[in-house]
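Field reference: sequence -> structure
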Amino acid sequence: MAKLDPLLRELILKGGSDLHLSAERRPMLRIDGEMQPSSAPAQSHADVNEFVRELMDQRANEEYGDTSDADFAYEIMGLARFRVNVFEDRFGMGAVFRQIPSRVRSADELNLPQSVRDFCDLSKGLVVVTGPTGSGKSTTLAAMIDLINETRSDHIITIEDPIEFVHKDKNCLVNQRQVKDHTRSFSSALRAALRQDPDIVMVGEMRDLETIEIALETAETGHLVFGTLHTTTAASTVDRIIDAFPADRQNQIRSMLSNSLKGAVSQTLCKKIGGGRVAALEVLKVDTGISSLIRDGKIHQIPSAMQMGGSKGMKLLNSALAELVKKGEVEPEEAYRRAIDKEDIVNALAKVGHPLNRATAPTPPPASEPETVSESPEPDDEDKPKKRRGFFSS
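Structure field:
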């Protein structure tokens, strides 16, 4: 048993999602979305280093030595798997362990709506599951892959960094590949997948232009592709994909996307009344009308089209939040916190008979003061610092 295992068992016992280790500070647990101290005292840099190095393989150690960051997976047999990120801060080594349950939760357990399940019946196209970090994208996507695994007889290839949920063969053959261990990158694995006779390809992160481009081409050539992005709404997902490409290619990409994108599921996790969390899902299904809006560059009209497309299974985030409040699963104040359009959610809550108490409603942060315009010219794009992880890191 590894020295860190008792802390990870405490995380599972308390129903938490993440264990945070930081040098010179007490280990913290994220439970129902909030940080809480663990039962352990503050750990020194030497303690954290000893705990984590015991779990790291040679590849992770070399990556950490080169970049002061590393990703890997760790499993306690019979309990859970963990996605691990190791990093360095001003106090020394730190690490975050994200719990990945050993068992994939089914579509029924997650109460996935029929509109989301419909994506699992497609023969080709691109389906994107989006949301901020920690919003449950991986759990939803794993349930969709599991549904395909149960109801179809196909070849599924997953490309992940690292492998999270482990899928056993049911009616499908499932090959799971881990970036850095089984393949060099998402893009190289996705390109190779075309020679591996897949029916369905799942890309853990569409984090750079090359990966997005190959995913679109794969979807266009008769395969069903699932991917994830760190966007908060369906419309912003379309924008993010298009904006990843140079301006002189965006018309071409709009045309490709209008043909290959079949849907987007944008989700956020809310605190559930009585404990736990529940997902609010925004669902975009690309019909001929939405396809035309994408092709014509009228992305701003997609939310209105979604509002009119309720009979086809489309749903805006605020509608999903209001439904959770109406069902008694989420407090109105929590729905307000999670909403992107604050004014609209107030109206939506009033329509379902749960008007928001303005006196107790969370106050949005004040608008920042306008920045003083500098007299010095802005640096050229190539002089600006680049983000290490690509377009869609958060």
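Note: The first strand starts at residue 18 and ends at 22.
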